[in-house]
Amino acid sequence: MTVSGNCHKIRTALILLDQQFEWIEVDTRKGETKTSEFLKINPNGKIPVLQLEDGTNIPESNAILYYLTRDTPLFSKDLLEQTRILEWLFFEQYSHEPFVAVNRWLMKYAADGRENSSVLENNHIKGNKAFSVMEDHLRGKNFFVGERLTIADIALYAYSHVAEDGGFSFDGFPNVRRWLENVRSFPKMISIPR
Ligand SMILES: N[C@@H](CCC(=O)N[C@@H](CS)C(=O)NCC(=O)O)C(=O)O
């Protein structure tokens, strides 16, 4: 789905790597990830899924990023850098996406999403905690790992660059704002249409 940050990660990596691909739009709002046909592709009922030509299906956006980039400069050959990249991918999935992405979903797409103010408030606090961790890490740095764009940046950019749709502000996070601008201006980088 084009507006999904998790799907945006995959489109970004494929474009940066100049890979040919077919994009099949699957709309979660219409229940298209819960049909028996889709559940055969991903029993967890979620997008994105990378489908290989031999019929193999790979779900989980950050696993797909690894699969696509493992032998390219968007990953790393160095064990410590690989580990740092994984560290930020796990951070993104546990401490960032569940709050930053979910508030965007609730505020922009869910029919009654603005009604549950205690969930929005809790997610806002935890999302800002994630941005403060990123802010400290990015002091004096242009990228998350190794001073070049890697899948750590691609994964964190996906929901950060549209976080304002979920009520987040970068006024208190100048390093995050600078990093966002830096990633946005990377050749061939794409943004989610707003
Ligand atoms: N951990 C998964 C999360 C995937 C995910 O939450 N996908 C959403 C769209 S962004 C989805 O398919 N939601 C439908 C549902 O949960 O019913 C990943 O990184 O790929």
Automatic annotation (TrEMBL):
<dbReference type="InterPro" id="IPR036249">
    <property type="entry name" value="Thioredoxin-like_sf"/>
</dbReference>
<dbReference type="InterPro" id="IPR004045">
    <property type="entry name" value="Glutathione_S-Trfase_N"/>
</dbReference>
<dbReference type="Pfam" id="PF13409">
    <property type="entry name" value="GST_N_2"/>
</dbReference>
<dbReference type="Pfam" id="PF00043">
    <property type="entry name" value="GST_C"/>
</dbReference>
<dbReference type="InterPro" id="IPR010987">
    <property type="entry name" value="Glutathione-S-Trfase_C-like"/>
</dbReference>
<dbReference type="InterPro" id="IPR040079">
    <property type="entry name" value="Glutathione_S-Trfase"/>
</dbReference>
<feature type="domain" description="GST N-terminal">
    <location>
        <begin position="1"/>
        <end position="76"/>
    </location>
</feature>
<dbReference type="InterPro" id="IPR036282">
    <property type="entry name" value="Glutathione-S-Trfase_C_sf"/>
</dbReference>
<protein>
    <recommendedName>
        <fullName>Glutathione S-transferase</fullName>
    </recommendedName>
</protein>
<feature type="domain" description="GST C-terminal">
    <location>
        <begin position="78"/>
        <end position="194"/>
    </location>
</feature>
<dbReference type="InterPro" id="IPR004046">
    <property type="entry name" value="GST_C"/>
</dbReference>
